[in-house]
Structure to design on (110 residues):
């Protein structure tokens, strides 16, 4: 591999590593991880997230703000409601893997 191609490869790897580190930093908080797991099931409003995961204001707003800044979620507004969703399929794949590794399996009938 020519030297300039090798440098391009390492530059791309460095950029990818920074992106992965940013995502992992965003998921390193248990409240954010819980919210992301809920959003992996589909788009949800702030009220739906609060009811589903039991995280109340102002913690919920604070964590959703962090998630927006880290570009873990996207939002859309419908009237007065704000809806959150995970847009990046790589994050959904990561959350699925984490779920498979760490979340308890619910037995049939439970």
């Amino acid at each position: 591999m020519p030297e300039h191609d090798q440098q391009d490869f390492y530059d791309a790897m460095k950029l990818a590593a920074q992106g992965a580190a940013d995502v992992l930093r965003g998921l390193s908080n248990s409240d954010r991880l819980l919210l992301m797991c809920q959003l992996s099931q589909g788009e949800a409003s702030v009220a739906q997230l609060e009811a589903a995961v039991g995280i109340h204001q102002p913690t919920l707003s604070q964590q959703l703000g962090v998630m927006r800044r880290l570009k873990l979620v996207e939002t859309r507004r419908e009237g007065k409601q704000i809806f959150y969703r995970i847009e990046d399929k790589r994050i959904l794949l990561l959350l699925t893997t984490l779920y498979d590794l760490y979340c308890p399996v619910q037995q049939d009938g439970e």
About this structure: The first strand starts at residue 44 and ends at 45. The chain has one domain: 10-102. The two ends are 57 Å apart (CA to CA). The longest helix spans residues 3-27.
